């Protein structure tokens, strides 16, 4: 921020939460790795805690909108949905019953 101010630059920062959606690479991104760890039970968040989510395609749109909007300046936090870890695990169990997951529940 200091550098941008000193140089007279317009700075726009898009800050997404956990990002999910189609992957471009063969490895999991940080958000998908986190969810994998929760499902496998190696990470144990409180079932009553919440996670905020965003689709990667919507994050891309947010970047484009920020660049195209002349009035855009500063930080933009992107959150599409906040859901409890309990509901995430419930959805995983319903959609993928073959997975042995959520041992910590």
UniProtKB/TrEMBL annotation:
SUPFAM superfamilies on file: NAD(P)-binding Rossmann-fold domains
Give UniProt keywords alphabetically. Oxidoreductase
* Superkingdom of origin: Eukaryota
Gene Ontology MF annotations = oxidoreductase activity
Which protein are we looking at? Answer: NAD-dependent epimerase/dehydratase domain-containing protein
The species this protein was found in: Selaginella moellendorffii
């Amino acid at each position: 921020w200091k550098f941008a101010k000193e140089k007279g630059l317009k700075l726009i920062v898009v800050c997404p939460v956990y990002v999910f959606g189609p992957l471009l690479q063969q490895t999991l991104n940080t958000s998908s790795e986190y969810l994998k760890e929760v499902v496998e039970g190696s990470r144990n968040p409180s079932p009553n805690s919440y996670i905020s989510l965003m689709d990667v395609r919507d994050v891309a749109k947010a970047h484009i909108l920020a660049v195209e909007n002349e009035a855009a300046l500063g930080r933009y936090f992107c959150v599409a949905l906040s859901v409890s870890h309990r509901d995430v695990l419930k959805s995983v169990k319903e959609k993928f019953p073959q997975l042995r997951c959520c041992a910590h529940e």
